[in-house]
Amino acid sequence: MKVNFKFINSVTYTLLGAVILAATSCQPEEVESGNGLTDPNVDASFTIETIPGEPNRFMLNANRENILKSMWNIGDGYYTGVLTEEIFLPDAGDYTISHQVFGRGGSVTETSQEINVAVSDPEAGNLIKGGSFMTTEDQAEWTILQISNSGANWTFSEGSATITGSGYNQQGIYQAVEVEAGKEYTLDMKVFGSGSTNTWFEVYASPTAPVQNQDYTADGRRMGLSTWDGCANGPFEGKLSNVGCVGSGRTVSFDQSGTVYIVIKSGGENIGSTGISVTNIEFRGKPN
Fold first, then answer.
1. Cβ atoms 106, 12 nearer than 8 A
2. Is residue 75, in this structure, part of any structural domain at all?
3. Containing domain of residue 247, as a range?
4. DSSP annotation of 124
5. Is residue 131 part of a domain?
6. What pTM does this model have?
7. Which residues have CB under 8 Å from 270's CB, separation 6+?
8. What are the pLDDT digits (tens) for 261-284?
């Protein structure tokens, strides 16, 4: 196993644009002198340790002094974590791990390191091909599902797929994967958009094959966005499991081994000025 760690950067900035200075002569004149309002030197550094016997699991150990809040980003956006954070990177590849910490007075410091993971986890490796849409080969792994005659359109670009549309039209994309009976799988993806009106975004995992020029409703929604249910009305970005608000859940199993279809469809009155974009689509066996 080969795991490389590389320190990238450290950036410190403050959210406090102005400080009301001393009301008495004995109080320091500058933040740096120690008035206690802002701590500009909060340390966001961290170490990365491999976990013995677990080539895809890592322990992130951060500095603890004067930290009020800790945020981590392992590739899909920041989330609130703890100062000793265990992460799971099931797919081989290069990852940038970023740590952002908040100190007194709104000061924020961020550092990043790179990890190279040599092998994919045999149980939880991603079954989706081209889920990042980075190359034309990735994009070719997906098939457009025509539902409405016009008015909704999926487009592929380097790093994402985006649905745009209006007039309550819809269109989908899909991919076939092979599953084992009785095994649990988890489904997730990163989604982002500027906000929509009367819009749906639905994800399915089903043995029912899509049919061109027909709607797809097999087995109900696993995950999704719905402005009627309170999500995607305003700007959003993150894992669908975090920012979504409909569906039966990201975990699924099947009675029979064979082919299932991961189908993503979206439409509505107005999907938004930038549409809804998706990337980092994952469908993987549940890790031990």
1. no
2. yes
3. 136-285
4. T
5. no
6. 0.70
7. 166, 196, 197, 198, 199
8. 999 999 999 999 999 999 999 999
